[in-house]
Specification:
The chain is mostly helical. About 75% of the residues lie in helices and about 0% in strands. It has a single domain, classed as Butyryl-CoA Dehydrogenase, subunit A, domain 3.
Length: about 180
């Protein structure tokens, strides 16, 4: 298969999904830029791609995550702003349903703890939660062992559960 067809096939198969992930991480404008940079890098680095080590999907996410690191400082500031101001994380023009309000409250509670995560832990969390990558795909994308992904995700879940518990302690009933 020639290079233009390979790149076109990869773009057709993964661009929309990758764009959604990037938009959630860095906003629509940055997502467009990072998406195009990702596929440009894929063309430039295609000789280094080893299909025995990773799927094309994980390889593309790995490239995208590396490019997102350039946006890391602004991303951290964005999460810190979400923690300071009660803004919704997702634009919604319709009235917010009750379940949506609960989810928004949880997002607000998690904004500060997510901002305080180290970069590696945040990458694992968001690749899992927003990109819906498997542990193996996250490991391939970040060039770390699967066990590292599992331990980071376990640590992050523990930290986020503790943060939620601190923000929403169970009220004891009076008998």
């Amino acid at each position: 298969m020639s290079t233009p067809n390979l790149v076109a096939d990869l773009f057709d198969a993964h661009a929309a999904e990758l764009y959604r992930y990037l938009a959630r991480r860095a906003g629509h404008t940055a997502a467009e830029e990072v998406l195009s940079q990702t596929f440009l890098a894929a063309v430039e680095q295609q000789q280094r791609f080893d299909p025995n080590r990773a799927s094309a999907r994980a390889w593309l996410y790995g490239i995208a995550v590396n490019l997102l690191r350039h946006h890391y400082r602004s991303e951290t500031r964005k999460w810190q702003a979400y923690a300071r101001f009660p803004l919704e994380l997702v634009e919604d023009t319709a009235d917010v349903a009750a379940s949506r309000a609960d989810a928004t409250a949880v997002q607000r509670s998690l904004a500060r703890p997510i901002a305080e995560l180290n970069e590696a832990d945040r990458d694992v969390l968001l690749l899992y939660a927003w990109a819906d990558l498997s542990y193996a795909e996250i490991a391939a994308a970040l060039h770390v062992p699967v066990g590292t992904v599992r331990s980071r995700l376990h640590r992050v879940r523990t930290q986020l559960k503790a943060a939620l518990a601190a923000d929403h302690p169970l009220e004891e009933s009076v008998s």
